[in-house]
Structures are given as C-alpha cells and as structure tokens.
Amino acid sequence: MGNYCLLRRLAKVALGLNYGQRQGRCILAMTLTTTLALVVPARATTWQIQADGQGDAPTVQAGIDSAVAGDTVLVSPGTYNEDLDFVGKNLVLRSQLGPEVTILDGTGQDSSVVVFRSGESRSAVLEGFTITNGEGTFYAGEGDPKYGGGLFCKRGSPTVRGNKFLRNHAAWGGGAWAGIQNMIYQPWELPEPLFEGNVFEENLAERGGGGLLIDASRAFVVGNKFIRNAIRLEGDGGGIRIDMRFFPAFVWVEQNEFYDNVATDQGGGLYAYMTPDAEGVDIRGNLFVRNQAQGIGPSSDSYGSGGGIGVSEVIGTIANNTIVSNIGNPDLPCGGGGIRLDATTSSLSVTNNIIAGNTNCAVTCRHNGTAQFGTNLLWNNTGTSLDSCPQGWSNSVIQADPQFCGQGVDDYTVAASSPALTGGSTLGAFSTPGCGPVSVNVTTWGLLKNLYHGRR
Which of 13, 83, 177, 304 is a plausible cystine mate for 340, CB 3.0–4.6 Å? Predict the structure, then answer.
C-alpha cells in the first residue's frame, strides 16, 4: 500500500489539494483509481471520414458531432456535398491529402459551406479543403443580407489555413466573412480569426469584400492569395474589405498577393474603412497586381477609387508593399491607380512601398487626406504621381526603375542592383534579390572608422 499512498499524494498535489500532515494508511484502491483518472487527460481521438460513408462516421458533420475538443476529424479525398457547423467545438477539421482532391461543395444547400458561430477559439482549425458553391448565411434571420459565401464566422476566432475558396457567392464577403456586425458587444468578445495560406479565387459579392470581408475583428490575414474576386453591384474591396467603424479593433494584412480583383467602386485589391474608435490596420509586405476599382459610386468624382488600395479615415501602416499595374477609375484624370487616401491623417504611415506602372496616378489624396509619407519608389505611373497630396511628399520619392526580375511572368522580386535594395532602406514586398549579381552595400570612410572604433 506504500506505493498507493505515494501515488495518491502526487495525485492530490496535481489537483491542487492540501494533503495535510495526516499519517496512516491509504484505505481504498478505488479512490486512487478515481483520483488518477481526474489527473491524466483523455487521449485525443482521430475520426477518419471517407467519401463512401465507410469511415468512423458517415459524413463530415457526423464526425464533428461525434468528436470533442482536441480531436481531429481527418477527411479522405473526395467531394462532400454538405454544409458544416463546428457547433462550438475546438477541434481540427483537416483533409488528408489537401484541397486539390478534397472538396466541400455547397451546391443545393443555399447556405455557407462552413460555419463558426458559437465562440470557437484559435484551436478550432479548418485546413486543407476546396470550399466551393456556398451561398452565404443570414446574419440574424431570413430576410437579412447573406454573409460569407464559403465561410461564415460570427464571433468566432478559428484558424483557417491552407484552403481554397473557389466560386462562392454572398451579398457580403463572397469567399468568407468574419466579424460581429452589430453594436452590442463587450471588448473581450471581439473575435480574433486567423486566415493563413489560403487561396480566394473567383468569389463574388454583391456589395463588398469579393474574396474576404472583415467586420469588427482583431483579424490576422497572412500569406493568402486573392485572385479574380469581384463585386457585382456597387461596392468596395474586390479582394478584401475591412470595415472597422465604431469598434476598437486592429487588423493585420501581411504578405498576401492580390491579382486581378475588381471592385465596382473603391479598393480593387483592398479597401479599409475606419473611424477614430478603431485601433488601426497594418497593410505590410503585400503584392498588388492588375487590380481595378471602377469608381461607379455617387461620390467617385470626389473620393477617387484606389485600384490597388483604397482607405478611408484609416490609421496604421501601409508599408513595404509592391503595387503594380493597378487601375483607378478610368473616367477620372487621377483616380488613384496605386493608392487612394481619403480623409486620412498623420496617424497613417505610408512608407517603403514600390508603386509602379499604375493607371490614373500613383497616389491620390482626397478630403484633405494626409499621412506620414516616408521613402517610396514611384515609377512609370500614368498621370500625376501625387495628386492633391501635400507638396512636401515629393521630397521623399525615389523616381527610378525598380528592376523587376520578370514582370511578364508575374515575378516582382527585384534585381540585386535595384534602387529598392541599395538606397539604405528595403522597399517593396521582397527583401531578397530575385536575380542579378549580389548587391554591395554602399559605405563611406567615416562609417568604416566608426565601425572600427566601436569594436575597440
């Protein structure tokens, strides 16, 4: 019984109980067994799902329903014609062999393909699927506009990684939507979803966020691709729309690629709209290529459009982006082919970007829009480089060919001799040369002396 006593003491310590100074014998082996059962965590289970229904559960949703937090629902290759709800479970839903061979198809379901709406955390993971033919979910009830064609995320903070959102449709957020979308909330209720390494392709929204719509979330959007997403009616954000009005939230949009997205109004690649209540946005290290903002809204003549990026009242950072061959409103002499800044202040920093080959100006400032405008490389944009922007900004501009390694094949890394790498700051989305000889850092005799003395 001595070993039982020792184990029981350890168990009580693990449970945070006070064993006390009482001496004597441990009296029941059953008590020991029960105590240890509370200490040792249950082993996570993997639920295998097969397209023929012969797995551990007959459908993907049945696998989710059977699983508990910490389990993995592993889906074999095939097409699954069903819509899924995580029902508040922090589990992993993962394909076995990736999105090219594992398809969640919402055809005929008339709703979003995947739903998070029960407070799921970052431990709830959706990974490795093609998600297609979703039609969105009513936010509050039937008759409201539908949100999130492929994915509907209301008050959830899941990890959404390595998926392909293809040809989904909704009024708002054609590919996916995440947020709150009402004014009744507590600060700790703001969701924190992570979208990482996904592809959003050919999704369609009626009003905003062709690929992705972020509403009132501390969202992380990192390393995704947005390709040929669009708005059908008058709306903003062909690739992404970020709407942070009245909410103290911050959004990170970093190291994404935006190709050929179209907004009928503002922000062909990305559009962000905030008010002073918001904490800001970090738009950093992204690539924007051939996106278009058509500017058909009633105020497009005064607002511009923003072929690559359009922002309104935004604070935060637009830095180290490569913005190439985007198109602003073609009916304006300067619609902001690269960037449109509307009513921004010095609380926004615009620095270290490459803005080249855009139509209808490089940057336009509307409604007294301003920013902390650092070093930016502007090259071969049509129209005025800086339209209606503070005059002093031109002093920070580098006018030089960025020397892209292969623009014809969408390679926007730069040569080792590029002014984007050799001027003391790294400009654009790519910090490592993609072609050409290794660059040599420029120095002076004074710098060498200081370096030598600093080592003594």
Answer: 304
